[in-house]
Amino acid sequence: MTFQTLDDLEDGQRVLVRLDLNSPVEDGEVQDNRRFSRHAKTIRELVDRDFAVAVMAHQGRPGGEDFVSLEQHARILADHVGHAVDFVADTYGEDALTAIDALEGGDVLVLENTRMCDDELPEEAPDVKAETEFVQALAPHFDAYVNDAYSAAHRSHASLVGFPVVMDAYAGRVMETEYEANTAIAEREFDGQVTMVVGGTKATDVIDVMSHLGEKVDDFLLGGVAAQLFLRAQGHPLGYDVGDAALFDEQYEANEDTIVRMLEEYGDQITLPVDMAYEGEDGHREEMAVEDVPEDEDIAFLDVGSETVMEYSPVIRESEAVFLKGALGVFEVEAFSVGTVGVLEAIADTDCFSVVGGGDTSRAIGMYGLDEADFDHVSIAGGAYIRALTGADLVGVEALQQ
User: Which H or E run contains 149?
Assistant: First the structure.
């Protein structure tokens, strides 16, 4: 570990804490999700240790329908912490500073959406962000800064990288556990087989993961859009845009040469689906072997097939470590959840080190009644998780390390 954690922080201080509470918003209502429960553990520990806590977080982007106040977030967070959480509709102005100065040990205050501040959003270097009015106004009112927002750590925003330049900085529990789990595939040594299940909709994610981890991973099990593009490169008539879909052709044109090279370079490590699922005329799930896909029909494949799950499962069960990035199909529709849920069940049933993450994939665990405790780590990060797997820098983490 190359940064300070809460274990290094003396109790009873005044701390400015950055969380990532960015959540779906439906009809103006902020939706509760796993991020609140995870961050609540950090806040609860700080309360129990008599810290005076002010919370920074963001929601949406300016102009978006989900760009709303954090007032609802404060109420949801309070439910998870089991402790009063106040809210002030200001981030670093007079109202915010007055509320901050009134904090006593055990108090928790949520400041207004950081992205409502002009200083927050532009991607700039930490030393530039440290000079903003945002950072300069808040920093003197606290003894320390705590960054718990691993899922936003790939953003060079003021609330994430500016404060560590001018204050003692520490990692919260979410930051600490996410960093350890998501870097494990690159930094830990495993005696047995290491398997990575890679799905999702972005071919570049799969390519970058393979390029960075090819020497660490014994088997890449592919699903999602990437699997179809790799099958297309092998000459199979799938992985093409159908109807209004625009997931395949543009990505294939941009990455064809790289995909072909990946198949040549990592061919013995790559396992592709043997069958695919699609919606039949009656609206039900139908499956078809990859070898039987006709060349003169446009079929929208929405999941890997049952035979593919049966081939992937033994590989997973024989592994010492399994990492899952991205869904294998459109799991939000139950009929096409077979691939994603099937591999999750295989991972859950296996006595291996396991990390699940990437976008919304972790949502499938709750949607289909799986137990999160059956996995070593379920990441709440999307972009940061991918960057960790591909070896890209996380500026929020680097700010803590420096």
Answer: none
Sheet holding 275-279, edge to edge: 285-289, 275-279, 301-304
Q: Average pLDDT, stretch 341-359?
A: 92
Length reported for the chain: 402
User: What is the pLDDT confidence band of residue 358, given thresholds at 50, 70 and 90?
Assistant: low
* Whole-number Å distance between alpha carbons of 327 and 356: 10
Output the pLDDT for position 391: 81
103-134 pLDDT, tens digit per residue, is 999 999 999 999 999 999 999 999 999 999 99
Domain boundaries, the chain: 6-179+396-401, 183-370
Contact (CB, 8 A) for 122 and 362:
no
CATH fold of 183-370, please?
Rossmann fold (3.40.50)
Same fold, 6-179+396-401 and 183-370: yes
* Sequence-distant (≥ 6) Cβ neighbours of residue 161 within 8 angstroms: 125, 126, 129, 395, 396, 399
Q: Is 86 exposed, middle or buried (0-12, 13-18, 19+ CB in 10 A)?
A: middle
User: Among residues 348, 353, 347, which one has the least CA distance to residue 321?
Assistant: 353
DSSP notation for 318-358: T-SEEEEES-SS-TTSGGG-HHHHHHHHHHHTS-SEEEEES
Using alpha carbons only, give the angle 310, 313, 350 rounded to the nearest 5 degrees.
150
Residue identified by tokens 């033994």 is 314
If residue 289 lies in a helix (H) or strand (E), which one and from where to where? strand 285-289
Which class does domain 6-179+396-401 fall in? Answer: alpha beta
| Average pLDDT of the segment spanning 301-328 | 97
